[in-house]
Design brief:
The chain crosses the membrane at residues 35-52, 72-92, 104-122, 128-146, 151-170, 190-215. Keywords: Membrane, Transmembrane, Transmembrane helix. This is diguanylate cyclase. The structure is a single chain. By secondary structure, the chain is of the alpha+beta class. The chain has helices at 9-20, 31-58, 68-94, 99-124, 129-145, 148-170, 190-230, 240-252, 268-275, 277-294, 318-333, 362-378, 389-397; strands at residues 259-265, 300-305, 308-313, 349-355, 384-386. A five-stranded mixed beta sheet has the order 2-3-1-4-5, with helices on both faces. The longest helix is centred in the middle third of the chain and has 41 residues, at 190-230. It is elongated.
């Protein structure tokens, strides 16, 4: 478990803004912004259809595979849906933040999009590769982006419509895939196969890009949340939970020769009471920076709560731990922190050290370090004390 160097406040805020604020994470967009995304996708679908319609009409050799009157109708309907979907983008953009509009407009926007796709699915065949691919991809995207109530309110009628069309086609009450001429051998018809591929690829590509964006942003957010759950937000040091995890790992790995150093700022309450809590926070931040500067990369430093800090020194003897603690004590004492009136604020800390042994659990080691810290405070503060067995007896006698 590596030590986290102090993260400047601006950088931390930038990360939070980048991954957690509404403008960056698609999943956290307002519902109308998500509708704009869906409407833009719908416009792209109908532009694709219009391109196919025009291509067929400009190439007479393909007329034998389609019903031309349906193609002409398609141009009109695809153009109409394109205009409607495009126009719906304006109120979605204009009325963001309006609770009444945000409650009802998404049903209109997504509903129009679904209706247009259902009609196209019927024209090419409700169990065709295009219809099934679009159905699965859009459901998955919809469930990620929108509330389930909205998605299922559109999904259930659409499924009933497509299922009804499939049944009526099977019972010969409706033509199946009325856009195409199915008199020939459909699945050996190169034009039909290429048309299916043409319709599938844009939808599949867009959905895959959306999924990749959503999953990427989800991973980034989870990573940041995990990091934020491990560090203290004021000092950007490990918090108590992370320190306990670190100690558990050391204990599980039977790591020998590590030291725990507990330190507590002396008379910290006076700093808050006399100079203000903002100066108390500044003191904590400055002390955390000093501790980071005095330790090795392999060591761990954390804020254990309030004005108490903890150091985990790996591969360290008692003598070495005392040297590190003394170096930290002097550096803290030399801090230059001034009040709002320019008065120097005295800052000192007391230290308690405990060395690991094979038969000690992390909580027992913490208790020993805490006893040594107590002794440092009892002996006048601004001192470094190490836990040794006679210390316990002395404390019991006193």
């Amino acid at each position: 478990m590596k030590r986290i160097s102090p993260v400047p406040e601006k950088i931390l805020k930038h990360k939070i803004t980048k991954y957690l604020v509404e403008d960056e994470v698609v999943m956290n967009w307002s519902i109308l912004k998500k509708c704009i995304l869906m409407l833009a996708l719908g416009c792209g679908v109908h532009l694709t259809w219009l391109g196919w319609d025009i291509f067929v009409l400009l190439n007479p050799e393909y007329w034998q595979y389609v019903h031309l009157e349906r193609v002409y109708t398609q141009i009109t309907l695809n153009s109409s849906f394109l205009v409607i979907l495009f126009l719906l983008i304006f109120p979605c953009y204009k009325f963001q933040g309006n609770q009444l509009i945000e409650r009802y407009l998404p049903y209109m926007a997504v509903g129009t999009f679904v209706i247009s796709l259902c009609r196209d699915a019927y024209l090419v065949g409700v169990i065709s590769p295009v219809a099934t691919t679009s159905y699965v991809c859009l459901i998955m995207v919809g469930l990620v982006l929108f509330h389930r109530t909205l998605v299922y309110s559109m999904l259930i009628p659409a499924s009933i419509f497509l299922g009804g069309c499939a049944y009526l086609s099977f019972s010969h009450q409706l033509p199946y895939s009325p856009l195409f001429n199915l008199d020939g051998e459909l699945f050996y018809n190169g034009f039909w196969l290429l048309s299916m591929l043409y319709f599938i690829l844009p939808i599949l590509a867009v959905c895959m890009v959306l999924f990749e964006i959503l999953l990427s942003q989800w991973r980034h957010r989870e990573q940041l949340i995990k990091q934020l759950s491990q560090i203290d937000p004021l000092t950007n040091l490990f918090n108590r939970r992370s320190i306990n995890q670190c100690l558990d790992k050391l204990n599980a790995a039977a790591t020998p020769n590590y030291a725990l150093v507990l330190l507590d700022l002396d008379h910290f309450k006076k700093i808050n009471d006399h100079f203000g809590h903002h100066k108390g926070d500044e003191t904590l931040v400055e002390v955390s920076a000093v501790l980071n500067q005095q330790l090795r990369e392999s060591d761990v430093v954390g804020r254990f709560g309030g004005e108490e800090f903890i150091l985990v020194l790996k591969n360290t003897s008692l003598e070495k731990a005392e040297q590190v603690a003394e170096r930290c004590r002097i550096a803290i004492q030399q801090l230059q922190i001034f009040s709002d009136e320019g008065e120097l604020i005295p800052v000192t800390a007391s230290f308690g050290i405990a060395i690991s042994t094979a038969d000690l659990r992390p909580q027992q080691l913490l208790s020993q370090a805490d006893q040594a810290l107590y002794q440092a405070k009892a002996d006048g503060r601004n001192l470094v004390k190490a836990y040794v067995e006679p210390l316990t007896a002395q404390m019991q006698v006193s």
